[in-house]
UniProtKB/TrEMBL annotation:
GO terms for molecular function: ATP binding; ATP hydrolysis activity; transmembrane transporter activity. This is ABC transporter ATP-binding protein. It comes from the Bacteria. Keywords: ATP-binding, Nucleotide-binding, Transport.
Amino acid sequence: GPLLAGRGLVKAHGRTEALRGAGVELNAGEILALTGPSGSGKSTLMHCLSGIVRPDAGTVTYAGRRLEELPEERLSELRRTEFGVVFQFGQLIPELTAADNVALPLMLAGADRATARSAAAEWLERFGARGQEDLRPGEMSGGQAQRTALARALVTGPRVVFADEPTGALDSLAGEQLMTALVHTARETGTAVLLITHDAQVAAYADREVRLRDGVLAPQGVAA
Ligand code: ADP
Ligand code: ADP
């Protein structure tokens, strides 16, 4: 079966019903693009699938485990070890340099600082952020922040990476370079990727595309 499956997901933010019964499956090693108009529920779906938000109804199954049945600390542990997340606005730690932001998840997993920092430098280079090791988020361009966030999401070797508009702050050439690096890395490591994008050129890097509309999956092959 699929590595990750959301079924019948419902989530309201106040009176806004962001998800109204959305379901999606992600296979091991698959790169899946999640597309759809602004406000269709893409980010909310990603937050439910990655265990950041608990849905009001529906189920999320990861590797045979039901996320809604896991106590908070088991869910956090699973997120730390199995998932990598890239938020739309980077959400790097402002006080830390790029290298320390990327090194942090490894240090939390028990690596010493020197090992973590050298792995961080390699990951930054892989995503085209060489020479940016000592920049703090406030000193980075949007693109530099996104490259750093992507390196941070992948440094621990997760089985699934969730990326919300990872190319949003990049011009199209830089976006293609980032996607090439992401796809290459995902193939090499067998990491599955759930990619939110509104950009058809970015979606074209995926193995498959699903489209959300008003909080549910649009029928396959039907444009939103
Ligand atoms: P929930 O309803 O899931 O508890 P919250 O109200 O806690 O969500 O908000 C989660 C995050 O989303 C907050 O950081 C909040 O600022 C942000 N947010 C609030 N309103 C919106 C909106 N209309 N669209 C997107 N994000 C929003
Ligand atoms: P998308 O990622 O497709 O743009 P979202 O999941 O961010 O869609 O949002 C779906 C709907 O829920 C939108 O109407 C949005 O304004 C609303 N929404 C999302 N997050 C919040 C929040 N934290 N608080 C209030 N409304 C939210």
